[in-house]
Amino acid sequence: MLEATLHHLDLIAPLPGAEAPPAEGLAAARELVERRLRIQLPGDWTDAEALRIATGRAEATPAERAALDDLGVRGQMLPLAFG
């Protein structure tokens, strides 16, 4: 589910208005990523934002980086790679 959800996000990134992955898939993928990182990403981030940032598909803004710093996420932890 994680891989399919991430690929779906990749495919729709350049397509404004494209249908997002199913909410349950996004939530499950986020849970897997958070488990791997052993933290909960900021709750005010959408599941899609959290996945994009955690996997390096989007660069964290200064505010998002500060939120990660507050959680103790070190720079070398991101982007998260599965393999």
Write a compact overview of the structure shown.
The protein is an all-alpha fold. It has helices spanning 2-12, 23-37, 47-54, 62-71.
Written description of the protein model:
This protein has helices at 2-12, 23-37, 47-54, 62-71. The radius of gyration is 12 Å and the shape is globular. By secondary structure, the chain is mainly alpha-helical. The mean pLDDT is 91.
List the helices and strands and how they pair.
Layout: H1 2-12, H2 23-37, H3 47-54, H4 62-71
Helix pairs in contact: 1-2, 2-3
Key traits:
53% helix, 83 residues, 0% strand, single chain, 4 helices
The proportion of residues in beta strands is under 5%
Helix/strand order = HHHH
Distance between the termini: 15 Å
Structural class: mainly alpha
Low-confidence stretches: none
The radius of gyration over CA amounts to 12 Å
Shape: globular
Q: Describe the biggest sheet?
A: none
Mean pLDDT: 91
How many helices? 4
Provide the helix percentage.
40-55%
Number of strands: 0
